[in-house]
């Protein structure tokens, strides 16, 4: 008699999660991925502190260092605009507290008033919650830690902000690494969704169809993540003299991302049609083969992110599929629903063709008129 397996307890689940987080290999991957950001923060904070201390003669330039750390951070989005917005938010907090110290002095109610005023002003100036929080933290530091000279810490904050912007340009984070990783993740997820939908068509499997549609619906976060990393990379290449050569490649990837954004939306349309059709239990190998060929073309587009020589191969592969997408010719004796399914693959083929660099008009002309 087989012993019954007990479900894992909450304690066991928590213990497993902690072990996963404390895995040394995962930790090393995190450190490697943040290496550039760590160097930026260390250099900027140290330089700002030394400048305020040794050049300006400030006795304790704490804010010169904290502004650089807070504005740069370890986040993926290292766009100069985001860094500047964070710096401005912190300077707003410092300025409000410095003015209040001159008018009302220090104390518990002055601290509460400074915090309230800072949050209100910051929310008025920006819709970003992080902007207000950054301002509030610096406001608290100014109110809690006394200083003899008014607005000395505001100068330190300005020094820290300038240092943060300088290292963003002079010690830039890798503009392509995150974008390449996010692009590869999107294409892998797209291939998985196509594979599940194709298997559902081949086996007339409603469960696989539902799973494929779920995967297709889950592609949008991957598209958005790739867009954010590309926007960050492009912004850095515009100000960094060391990364300008990467701009054209990132612009090519952004063109591919825009096309893939449309392709994922059309894949969701196909997925919904498949969920409806396979309920009749009839296999549809022709539609499955067509979707598989389109998925293979998309895979080549994904591989062209690292090897641009594959772009023409992807284009010709997809052109060959698109040229056959005439529902009446491919499934002449099929139902209207089956022909509509083939017709729904036409926009997907066009989107994938534009991802290869083909102009929109030429891509639309690659599918037969119906």
Structural class: mainly alpha
Q: Give the overall pLDDT as a whole number.
A: 87
Tally of separate domains: 2
CATH fold topology of the largest domain: Methane Monooxygenase Hydroxylase, Chain G, domain 1
Characterization of the model:
There is one protein chain. This protein is mainly alpha-helical and 370 residues long. The chain has 2 domains: 136 residues; 189 residues, Methane Monooxygenase Hydroxylase, Chain G, domain 1 (Up-down Bundle). The termini are far apart.
Reconstruct the topology from this structure.
Blueprint: H1 10-21, H2 24-33, H3 35-55, H4 62-72, H5 80-104, H6 108-125, H7 129-144, H8 152-170, H9 177-203, H10 206-217, H11 220-239, H12 247-277, H13 285-303, H14 311-322, H15 327-330, H16 336-355, H17 360-365
Helix pairs in contact: 3-4, 3-8, 4-5, 4-8, 5-6, 5-7, 5-8, 6-7, 9-10, 9-11, 9-12, 9-13, 10-12, 11-12, 12-16, 13-14, 13-16, 14-16
């Amino acid at each position: 008699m087989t012993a019954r397996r007990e479900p894992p307890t909450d304690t066991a689940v928590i213990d497993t999660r902690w072990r996963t987080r404390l895995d040394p290999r995962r930790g090393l991957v995190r450190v490697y991925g943040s290496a550039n950001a760590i160097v930026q923060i260390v250099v900027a904070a140290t330089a700002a502190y030394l400048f305020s201390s040794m050049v300006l003669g400030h006795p304790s330039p704490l804010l010169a260092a904290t502004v650089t750390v807070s504005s740069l951070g370890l986040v993926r989005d290292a766009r100069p605009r985001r860094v500047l917005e964070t710096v401005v938010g912190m300077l707003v907090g410092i300025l409000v507290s410095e003015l209040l110290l001159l008018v009302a002095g220090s104390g518990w109610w002055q601290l509460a008033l400074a915090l309230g005023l800072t949050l209100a002003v910051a929310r008025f100036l920006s819709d970003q919650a992080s902007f207000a929080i950054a301002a509030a933290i610096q406001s608290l530091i100014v109110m809690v830690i006394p200083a003899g000279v008014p607005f000395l810490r505001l100068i330190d904050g300005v020094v820290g902000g300038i240092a943060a912007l300088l290292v963003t340009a002079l010690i830039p984070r890798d503009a392509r690494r995150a974008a390449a990783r996010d692009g590869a993740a999107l294409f892998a997820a797209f291939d998985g969704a196509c594979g599940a939908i194709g298997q559902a068509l081949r086996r007339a499997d409603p469960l696989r169809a539902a799973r494929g549609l779920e995967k297709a619906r889950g592609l949008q976060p991957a598209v958005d993540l790739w867009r954010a990393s590309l926007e960050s990379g492009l912004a850095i290449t515009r100000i960094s003299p060391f990364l300008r050569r990467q701009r054209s490649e990132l612009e090519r990837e952004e063109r591919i991302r825009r096309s893939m954004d449309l392709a994922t939306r059309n894949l969701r349309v196909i997925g919904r049609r498949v969920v409806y059709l396979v309920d009749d239990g009839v296999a549809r190998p022709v539609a499955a083969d067509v979707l598989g060929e389109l998925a293979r073309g998309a895979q080549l587009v994904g591989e062209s992110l690292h090897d641009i020589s594959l772009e023409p191969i992807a284009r010709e592969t997809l052109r060959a599929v698109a040229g056959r997408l005439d529902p009446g010719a491919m499934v002449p004796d099929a139902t209207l629903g089956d022909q509509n399914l083939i017709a729904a693959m036409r926009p997907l083929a066009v989107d994938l063709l534009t991802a290869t660099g083909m102009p929109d008009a030429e891509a639309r002309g690659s599918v037969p008129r119906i």
